[in-house]
Design a protein that fits this description.
The chain is α/β, with parallel strands linked by helices. The protein is built from 8 helices and 5 strands.
Length: 179
Amino acid sequence: MEGKAPLILIIDDDEQICYTFREICTFQGWKALIAGSYPQARKVLETQRPHVILVDYHLPVMDGIRVVKALRKTHPQTPIIVLTMDEQEAVMRNFMDAGADDFALKPIKALDFIARIQMHLKYAEQRRYYGDMQKGINPETMQRILSCLAQADGFVELEAIIESTSISRQSVYRYMQHL
């Protein structure tokens, strides 16, 4: 992204949400591209190559899961973040199976939005520089995380893994996504 403002494609039919995200993007020095549906997003994607794509679950024409599947076919390396009000685990799992990289519940706070975009911009840059993200997985770090998980009796929160392994939040998050 040397010298160019990162492009953030926001696919959401709620004009107020798009306005808010566009303002946050502008404040951060990013350029927001807005589409209210997948057909509109396809037109944007004919001329623009976004660095991150945000997709709402409830969209006209195609729901967010189908949109993510379609985007993954044409933009396999572009980070996709799903935005939804639906807190069901099955919905999250369906999005991740479709190819989403991240999942955020609405209403998303500005700082969380900014942090997620920054993280995915950083990972996309690393992927472009180092190649496949799998190369960034260190076997020793992975073993520390797997040992922590193996010692647990059930569900383990991210904070517990961070505390137990002394590995940074971003790294633990990336390794959990890898798993």
